[in-house]
Automatic annotation (TrEMBL):
This is DUF6297 family protein. The lineage of its organism: Bacteria, Bacillati, Actinomycetota, Actinomycetes, Micrococcales. Keywords: Membrane, Transmembrane, Transmembrane helix. The chain crosses the membrane at residues 36-61, 89-107, 138-158, 170-189, 221-238, 244-264, 343-362, 368-388, 414-435, 441-461, 490-507. It comes from Arthrobacter gengyunqii. Residues 199-219 are annotated as: Disordered. InterPro entries: DUF6297 (IPR046264).
């Protein structure tokens, strides 16, 4: 060999490509064609069945929406539309904005850029550019968000946009999918703006090719929540325009998604490693909870917020202690309840959303408005059971207290019941101001709130469904009674406390008999929390 001969350079080892190839080879080796065929067949059969049922529901709801929005519609309503004229499609636009804002919030809790635990500890400690490590999963998430949002928009668009053609509805669905992608990318900008990773550990080692400069004022403003909400508010108007055949705003949406990606993609390497691992852990936790159909675990997974500062609220009052064991426990539960971060965010937002839909939805029939109020209540009640869900993780600790289990549950119920009584009274007060009925409905709502608080605690102590129990044969076919009984725990008492309230709203006033019935139903809910068997 001569001295001028070329010397071959060794191939560069790519840990990301090697890990993914090995993972795919392992998955293919353990998968059989028969299992894949059964899974695909089951998925297609399920999708076809759900689609057939959804089609009938969509057609029925289109008739109700057409009746509510017709100019000559007459009939009694709980809340009359405002005297001034609103633009067409105000209520659907509000719902789209709420959906996009929810997507952005949930995406930030899940990352959106994330790695699993093993990937984080194997990859992030290497002195290589970590952008390739996280961009693949992020792109897959963006594609899934676009597809899921587009599919879910179709029934919504057919129900709320009666004048659009079928082609326009599919175009609007694709545009709404792009708006959902923009929401996820806004969450990515917030994740990028969380701060540079600090050196000092495997999860936060500085990779090669990644900058570690502090973000400037423009980037900090771009990662703030207010500009993102303003952009989502603008994008919530675009799907209906696309359904009408105006594709200029749709191109603006596409340009916004591309611009957000071009801004966030180069700074993927600046995301702290601990945030990437946290996003992967939350994603895995939430995905497993959804697979097992456990709403409590979903709420626990999504309630984790590392940026929240520990509160010392009610510290002096808690330090005084209690004279009795029940007083001490009630004082501790009160302090913990007041220190729970973001406790009133969901109740306040859903109350505002419900009132907005009642005002902008046209002359809706009374059953439709009552159904909207009931849906709001069912969505708000679990939010006030956040503290009880934490204590339910270790139920054996309640047995160590020098109190009976029923008294412990009563202490857990006190603060959620008081908070939901206040929320329900405020809800009914707003309805009374809008002309829904007499002021006695405020007292009716406060009494119903006590039952709602008990339902929040009852649902928080819901046991996981036993999927090993066989279904029971009935005249309607096999019914999984064991699983159904565990999943409706908490929803049953919410419905029990909600019936007198809906009856009072339907009548427009609350007679004394109805107030007594509401107090009795709420007392039954509290007793069910205290003395019902958790199994």
């Amino acid at each position: 060999m001569t001295s001028g001969a070329a010397v071959g350079t060794p191939a560069v080892f790519d840990p990301v490509r090697f890990t993914r190839q090995a993972s795919r080879a392992y998955t293919r080796g353990r998968s059989r064609i028969r299992d894949v065929f059964v899974d695909v067949y089951t998925a297609l059969l399920t999708a076809g069945t759900i689609g057939a049922l959804a089609a009938g529901l969509v057609l029925a709801l289109r008739e109700q929406v057409a009746l509510a929005w017709s100019a000559d519609s007459a009939g009694r309503t709980l809340v009359d539309p405002p005297s001034f004229s609103l633009p067409d499609g105000a209520a659907p636009t509000v719902l789209l904005f709420a959906a996009l804002a929810a997507i952005m919030v949930v995406a930030r809790k899940l990352g959106p850029a994330a790695v699993s635990g093993p990937e984080g500890y194997w990859w992030l400690s290497l002195p290589v550019d970590r952008r390739r490590m996280v961009s693949g999963r992020l792109i897959r998430r963006l594609v899934l968000v676009w597809a899921g949002a587009s599919v879910l928009y179709l029934p919504f668009g057919f129900i709320t946009d009666l004048a659009a053609s079928v082609r326009g509805q599919f175009g609007a669905a694709a545009v709404f999918g792009l708006a959902a992608v923009c929401a996820v990318l806004l969450a990515l900008l917030r994740q990028v703006g969380a701060g540079p990773a600090a050196p000092g550990g495997p999860a936060t080692a500085t990779p090669a090719g990644a900058s570690r400069t502090a973000p400037g004022p423009a980037r900090r403003m771009a990662s703030a929540p207010l500009p993102g909400l303003l952009l989502l508010a603008v994008l919530s108007f675009v799907p209906r325009q696309a359904a009408a055949g105006l594709w200029g705003p749709a191109l603006v949406t596409l340009a916004a998604a591309v611009a957000l990606w071009l801004v966030g993609r180069p700074r993927l390497g600046d995301i702290p490693g601990r945030d990437l691992i946290r996003g992967g852990a939350v994603s895995g936790h939430a995905g497993s909870a959804v697979y097992l159909m456990d709403p409590n675990e979903v709420a626990r997974a999504l309630s984790a917020d590392p940026g929240v500062v520990v509160s010392s609220r009610a510290g002096r009052w808690y330090a005084k202690g209690g004279r009795t064991p029940f007083g001490a426990l009630l004082r501790a539960d009160t302090a913990a309840f007041l220190r729970t971060p973001g406790l009133w965010v969901r109740p306040v937002l859903l109350l505002s959303l419900c009132m907005t839909l009642l005002l902008t939805g046209g002359r809706q029939p009374v059953p439709v408005q009552l159904a909207l109020i009931a849906a709001t209540v069912f969505a708000v009640v679990p939010a006030l059971g956040a503290l009880a869900r934490r204590t339910a993780i270790m139920p054996g600790l309640d047995l160590l207290l020098p109190l009976s289990l029923g008294v412990v549950r009563l202490s857990r119920t006190a603060l959620p019941a008081a908070a939901l009584a206040l929320w329900s009274a405020l809800f009914c007060a707003v309805l009374v101001l809008l002309g829904a009925g007499s002021p006695e409905l405020i007292a009716l709502g406060a009494l119903a709130g006590v039952g709602f608080g008990a339902s929040a605690v009852r649902g928080a102590y819901r046991v996981q469904p036993d999927w090993t129990a066989p279904p029971v044969d009935t005249v309607f076919g096999p019914v999984p009674t064991a699983q159904t009984g565990a999943m409706i725990r908490g929803l049953d008492t919410t419905l029990l406390a909600l019936v007198p309230l809906l009856l009072g709203l339907f009548l427009g006033y609350a007679p004394g008999v109805l107030l007594l019935a509401q107090a009795g139903f709420s007392a039954v809910c509290v007793l069910m929390v205290m003395y019902s068997n958790p199994k």
